[in-house]
């Protein structure tokens, strides 16, 4: 178990967020929640904190209210083995209020930023051929969703 656990601040929609992540990530699970009691400050019975896991990474979260928002200053990288995984996560995380951006970045409907990165990106932009790596990097910078075949073609000079 990691000694560092990211803690996320949600605006009173933590339970919805945990259910969403469990539906998106096949191996995700909720470990537990604590609920507000009669003394508040939240509505009695509503979720105060939650502990969940995605792809082996544990998260803790709180329903803290609207004071703080997520930003791109913190994002989570999803290491995808192939284009099918890229497509799956891209579709799931941008659906129902999410948004795409450049270079494989998306925001989910809660405003949390994700980088959906195929393993081919690492092979191409850091490959042993400097000219190929430059071409792959230039191709990547023009993409929103990363396309494995296009990265590989750019690296190969096609």
TrEMBL record:
InterPro entries: 3_dmu_93_MTrfase (IPR009725), Glyas_Bleomycin-R_OHBP_Dase (IPR029068), PhnB-like (IPR028973). Gene3D superfamilies: 2,3-Dihydroxybiphenyl 1,2-Dioxygenase, domain 1. CDD domains: PhnB_like. Residues 3-117 form the PhnB-like domain. It comes from the Bacteria. One of its GO terms (molecular function) is methyltransferase activity. Keywords: Methyltransferase, Transferase, Ubiquinone. Coiled coil: none annotated. GO terms for biological process: methylation. This is 3-demethylubiquinone-9 3-methyltransferase. It comes from Devosia geojensis.
